[in-house]
Amino acid sequence: SIQPSELVKIIFVFYVASSLKISRSFKDIVITTAVAAFHVLILVLSKDLGAALIIFIVYLVMLYVATRQPLYVIAGLSAGSVASVIAYKLFNHVRVRVLVWKDPFAVYDQGGYQVAQSLFAIGTGSWFGMGLFQGMPDTIPVAESDFIFSAISEELGLIFALCMILICVSCYVMFLNIALQLHNMFYKLVALGLGTCYIFQVFLNIGGVTKFIPSTGVT
Predict the structure, then answer these.
(1) Digit-coded pLDDT (tens) for 8-36
(2) 42, 5 in Cβ contact below 8 A?
(3) Distance (Å, rounded) from C-alpha 149 to C-alpha 137?
(4) Cβ–Cβ < 8 Å for 16, 194
(5) Mind listing the pLDDT tens digit for each residue in 49-64?
(6) 33 to each of 72, 104, 127, 207, how far by Cα in Å?
(7) How many other CB atoms sit within 10 Å of the CB of residue 20?
(8) What is the pTM of this model?
(9) Residue partners of 29: CB distance under 8 A and separation at least 6
(10) Nearest C-alpha neighbor of 157 from the set 182, 127, 195
């Protein structure tokens, strides 16, 4: 069960860091952006929208830090918004995920089962949880990867789950501290890119299982 996009994310960060270190002229930024867009397009066509979104955000963050040009970020977010609308129109599974995000219980039999079961599990665990091995993670689809946060919340409680989120955030802060201390632009961008990749993946996963954002299928 190897997911190629996991390896691509790491290689992509190193590629962007090396490209932006060598040159930050408009021409070279356009070339790097085209390569980044090609990565995103391949992932979109393979329906791995979660990985595509991670690579897109990581690239925008690295580009802004390297160039300090907010116009690039504004242009990127505008293009991303247009692409999201197009993806909604083109892909049926994207429309289903948006419907599930709006009300998973209304479409329980048409794709809302996963998120509904996830919310049931989180609610059942309440603040202090059912106890270790006392929950029913088998009732949550893909509880070992995509919906592991729901299983943890059910057995160990919401307080434990919130502490886990704080640990993830503190890891990201450590990534940022490392990036700030580095003077070499290449290593600075690598630290920032990998850190952003990590925290955004955490956000997409936890956000999806708690119905904060539409589920993207990120593990």
Answers:
(1) 888 899 999 998 888 878 888 888 888 88
(2) no
(3) 10
(4) no
(5) 888 888 889 999 999 9
(6) 10, 36, 45, 27
(7) 22
(8) 0.84
(9) 20, 63, 67, 72
(10) 127
